[in-house]
Amino acid sequence: xxxxxxxxxxxxxxxxxxxxxQLSYTSPAIPRLNIPEYNWWNECLHGVARAGVATxxxxxxxxxxxxxxxxxxxxxDAISDEARAKYHEAVKQGNRGQYWGLTFxxxxxxxxxxxxxxxGQETYGEDPYLTSRIxxxxxxxxxxxxxxHLKVAACAKHFAVHSGPERFRHEFNAQVSPKDLxxxxxxxxxxxxxxxxxxxxxxxxxxxxxxxxCASHFLxxxxxxxxxxxxxxxxxxxxxxxxxxxxHHVTATPEESAALALNAGCDLNCGCMYPYLTVACKKxxxxxxxxxxxxxxxxxxxxxxxxxxxxxxxxxxxxTGEVVDSPEHRALALEAARKSIVLxxxxxxxxxxxxxxxxxxxxxxxAATPTVLFGNYHGINAKMTTIxxxxxxxxxxxxxxxxxxxxxxxxxxxxxxxxxxxxMAEGADVVxxxxxxxxxMEGEEGDxxxxxxxxxRDAIELPAYQLEYLKKLRERGxxxxxxxxxxxxxxxxxxxADAIIFAWYPGEAGGEALADxxxxxxxxxxxxxxxxxxxxxxxxxxxxxxxxxxxxxxxxEAPLYPFGFGLSYTTFVFDSITADKKTLKPGExxxxxxxxxxxxxxxxxxxxxIYVAKDARGPDDPVASLRYxxxxxxxxxxxxxxxxxxxxxxxxxxxxxxxSVLSPGSYTLTASDAAPIPVAVLRGAPxxxxxxxxxxxx
Length: 698
Prior knowledge:
Largest sheet: 6 strands, mixed
CATH topology of the domain at 327-554: Rossmann fold
CATH class of the domain at 327-554: Alpha Beta
CATH superfamily of the domain at 327-554: Glycoside hydrolase family 3 C-terminal domain
Strand content: 15-25%
Number of helices: 19
């Protein structure tokens, strides 16, 4: 256990000014107490970011598409190895600057409720259960198995009810019902705190239910500390506390803003407001005891990271720079990209392409640029493989294949000539068109320089100039494979291509992974962690945080592609789902068995998804809710068996008061590989299997 006596003694030796200095993200050294300088701001959303060369894994939303807790933990473990190595080398060189520390503001477990949100790519998708499982796995991989000897410190952000719009995030007041709050927006944060032991929580920019999130007594005290018993530290989002008086207008001065945040339980300020705490304390706006409490939490995190102990007592001190972008990590990044790519359409089994007798034309503005590989909050790498490079490497030496390339059109702007290049398709046997988004169109406020909405999208359709060109390409009548890149749903006409692949932002090995799938060396197995609506018109108002009409759980209209959907080069059949009992009482468990078969000719991985739905569903109840999932490898012609346990709480719902209740009645338990709505069957997913469960009266 961390020696709390040492921490308290250290605090007792500090002046008020010294204490206050340690509450900002740029914490200066206090030489007389042997406290080194430390910068708390670091990022590792999908690899160590903004600190030079690192392994660049697929963006977070792509990790969600893998639907695999164990694999996600492996990725996070590799990332934390690189983080440790970079920190050790930086300290040796006297570098204690930003992005070289051990406290990482990752993961983002906000719910991707609206596909227009540019930062949705940072999340694991729209479902609270999926987000909880993948988020917990990521935290465990980052922090390691021992909470008192952290590998790095993870941070759950942005707490809470935060998912756009970016344009108004500094002044927005998110109004949310108790039901939606506890059913959708809080479960992932609760899981990371109570199950994974996440070390830090970051407050959001916006207000929620009238209180600024970084000074919300409701969120930070009542829920986080009192109900969930969180014992880590809370940090503000960057310059969010300044928003209190400049944009939210809940305070009048910087010292009032600083005091409001600290008194509500925000320990660390990313920004420039906490230096005002010295004045605030002298004015009586905040007590020195409250400052001591925040400082204790921050020092405890640094002690857990081994910053005040000799290296021989640190279990991670031997991790060296050799792990950074190592062959093992590069192989893991490639495997992640392969597993995350989703096959959405494959008419007449156009894919995979064979290795002979083909004239392939690669077109599209995303084909030869690394900007479609990164996603936001990224590291850099000397071996980023573009899609063009991946296909060129795959076809090298195969003299029966001709690969030609032309970008065809601009990504977001009109061509400045007549666009005659579309005629190149007439000489091809197959066209591979790479369209969609890059991180210049969607991302965080200020980062996405091509966005008209400060990182958000006003519409989810394919950008107009791309769609116009793609339609002309389609009219040439050649077999067309459409590769879409991006971090969110993109609505396209159903007949726009013969095959459609969604590649996300696939990271450093994205081009190689995509080529592996197009030519059949790898069977696609990614699943959508978000619903793809058919059009922007299907979406509720962006500023409305009510969940009605949003995500697979509450949509009433048929989407373009449902949550959980993704095709394969083989075929799976679900045979049965059985439970060891038909009735269930509170506190009991249900042992469930699912049998399924790979009836195709390729060994492949399938993601079995388990959904629960009330038979007598009320108007505010979810259509269905994901309650379990498992990725399983099954050889061609063989059967798979999945055995797992569901607690009675899997059948709970949240009432209007925000309480989880186990309502008596009949329920349907579904095993499928997509959300159980009819459109999934129409698009080639195997037919789901179901069984009935009755919840008895208490």
